[in-house]
Structures are given as C-alpha cells and as structure tokens.
Amino acid sequence: MPVVPLTDILSGAFKERYGVPAINVFNDLTLEGVLAAAVDRSSPLIVQTSVKTVRSVGGATFYALWKAMTAGIEVPVALHLDHCPDREVITECLGLGWNSVLFDASRLPVEENMRQTVEVVAEARAHGAHVEGEIESITGVEDGVGSDRAAAQQDLDVALEFLETTGVDVFAPAIGNAHGSYKRAPVLDADRVSDLVAAHPLPIALHGGSGLSDEQFRDLIARGCAKVNISTALKETFMKANLVFLETAAREQKWDPPSLFRAVRDDVMGLSGSLMTLFGSAGRGR
C-alpha cells in the first residue's frame, strides 16, 4: 500500500474510535524501526518530523530516506511536519513531499493565527496535503518549540470559529497535556475533546502523549483523539537502548556497530508496536 493522505488514515480511526500513533523520528534508524513495527502489527502510522530534525538531517535527505523506506510498504503511512511556526519550512516540506503539516501559530493572537492558517491550508491543498491547527500552545518545549508556561484555553466558540474559518483537517486543543516527561500525573480536561467533537466532528490530535496512563489514552481516543503524538518516549527508548548496549560493550570490550543498530532498532520497534496495540490501530492497516 502506498503512502496515503493523512485524512485517509484518520477518517477510519475517528469513525471507529481507535488511535493512530503519530511518532516523531529523528534519523534513519528510528524511521526504520517505527515503519517495521507498523508492518509487523499491520497498523496505520503517521511518521512525524520536527523542524529541528528537518534542519539537522536536511529536508531533501530525510525525504529521500522516507521514499526509499516506504517503497512497497504494506500499510498506510503518512509523513507529517510537527509543530512548525516557520512558514518557510512548511513551504520547503510541502514542496519536497510531506503530505501533512502542523502550522503552529499558537503564540500569535487568534485572529492572526486564523488568517495565516487559512493561507497554509490553501498552500497545502495545492500540494494535495493536509493541515493540523492549534490556537493554544501545548505546555512544554519539544525540539526547541513551545513554552513551559501553561496555555490559557480559548472558549469553545473561539475554537469553533477557527475550525470553520480555516478548514483544518485535524485540531490540537490544550486539555492539560504537556510535551516532555510529566513530573506528576496530569489532570486532563477530557470533556473539552467531547465538546469539540460534538460541535464540529473532526479528528482531534492528542499531544503530550508520552507518560499518559493506558486509561487516559483509551478514554481520550474513545472521545475522538484519532491522532496520538509520541515523541519523548521514543527519544528515551532510543537513548537508553544505546546506553545499555554501550555499557555492555565496554565491559566485554566488544565493539560491533551493526549489533548496536539492531538492538536499538528492536527497542524502537518494540515501543512502537506496543503503542499500536494499546491505541487499537494494530490490525487496521490491511
């Protein structure tokens, strides 16, 4: 099955109330691991890149990796640019072939955010791509984007005006969720998801997924969070897998890079696969 539009992946998830992992990768090994998990679990998958990853790897280089690794893939996958406040990077990625972007104008006044989001939606449509929008910063800094200050929630009427005016395909509300590792169990406003979906049915993106409980995931997915973002958990898995392997290598004085790569890939694949099962997307990629 080829790479497909984001809405093809999320429409079924939203209707049938399962979640699709949207996992931030940052190199070829993490990309390979999450794609292998999707094939293994027969799950749809949204692969995400941060602006930092695009800049560090290079947009053209990363897209070449994506094209090579998804050639002939057997499950539906999409490539999404996460939390991007920079219009030039959005234009670059859409031109290269990303088929989904999150234009993060949440630091702007809502009216200006809305005006620019309308422009981004039009630009994306010209490329056959889709857009995620937000009007409130998700607390926490992720790959250099965000704020440690809690975001003030906008009234439901403001959010609905944004959705109706911009025509975004996915919406990311602030519900007490946060990027990074939670220092304490988050208290989430799950009813806000239900209120938004009841008033304007469209897939909701759950940000700050790393560290939520299984019960919180299931509840929010059942309310309409069809896109579930994971970033910090993958970074921690990647770094810890490297650390464990290298500590053993140092003790045993065995230095074999391919074995390191296999071990790290297996851990990335294991984490990704477990999320697909938890979110209910496993088996939905046929």
UniProtKB/TrEMBL annotation:
GO terms for molecular function: aldehyde-lyase activity; zinc ion binding. Keywords: Metal-binding, Zinc. One of its GO terms (biological process) is carbohydrate metabolic process. Its cofactor is Zn(2+). It comes from Streptantibioticus silvisoli. Binds 2 Zn(2+) ions per subunit. One is catalytic and the other provides a structural contribution. The active site is at 82 (proton donor). Dihydroxyacetone phosphate binds at residues 180, 208-210, 229-232. Zn(2+) 2 binds at residues 104, 134. This is Class II fructose-bisphosphate aldolase.
